[in-house]
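Q: Predict the bound structure with adenosine-5'-diphosphate.
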Amino acid sequence: MIRARDIKKAYRRTTVLRGVSLNVQPGTIHGFVGPNGAGKSTFLKCLVGVVHPDSGTLEIDGIDGRRNSLEVRRRVGYAPAETSLYHRMKAVELLDFAIRYHPHSDLARGKALLDDLGVPHDRKVGALSHGMKRKVILAQAIASNAPVMIMDEPMEALDPEARRIVEELLKDECRKGRTIFLSSHDLFSTQRLCSQVTFLHRGLVLRDGPVDTLLSGVPGRLHVQLREPMDLKSLPTDGGLSWTGNGVDWQVSFETPLESVTRQLSTLPLASLKDDSSNLEDLFERLYDDESEPES
Ligand code: ADP
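A: Predicted complex:
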């Protein structure tokens, strides 16, 4: 649904994108993560035609993004990171204005979304809190009814309740067949939402693929509570089990299959066992620690 090949972009002396290629499959939620300054926003802006790449090819829903950016915009509900525009409009006016050029937009749905998210329709955008502005931007992307949604940090500035509502909304839209490509710093939310993820680093794709496959390369982890204290020497280490903790409270990491780990743990006086398993946060730390070698 989204296909980018070797996208490069530089601003004067700053090279931001060094050749980014990725595919977003139709009907999926695909996460785009990376540290600040990695180039995520710039890439998303290239996709929607706000920024023109220096080279490379872009295709959204089969349309060449560089030749026909207007057609691409009609197919994309874009939720930008900036909330500084259109301060004098009322929230509902901004919504109406932003979705008008989308052929299948649904203003009634947009208004209902503002209600669900607690945004006062008649409040001027400039008088809304940062989080409320973000909600208007999200509502317009969803109400555009465009087949593709491109969202720059959709969870940013949302309180936990709003975050939960937005996650459910996005999952619903995906179930209806829409394709969602979103950048995020919230890796737990990314893991809950996305089936695929692309890690960007200094303008290059560092890792890319289905979340399950990416996580299968990260060690598993269990939190182990014992009924009686044990010391490190007495704990089983076959198959590369690695222990941290002390007394009755331990954490074990492993790269072997879970069955062989539980077999070994069953020999211990277990009080409780909690899955503390690997997540995107761990993978992120591993990937970026390996890459952040000191610069000369
Ligand atoms: P991310 O979204 O991953 O935090 P950005 O795409 O916002 O990264 O920024 C990547 C780099 O590009 C940063 O170093 C930023 O300062 C630079 N940059 C972004 N937009 C511009 C611009 N309009 N002019 C000059 N430099 C820019």
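A: Residues 2-215 form a domain with the Rossmann fold fold (CATH 3.40.50.300).
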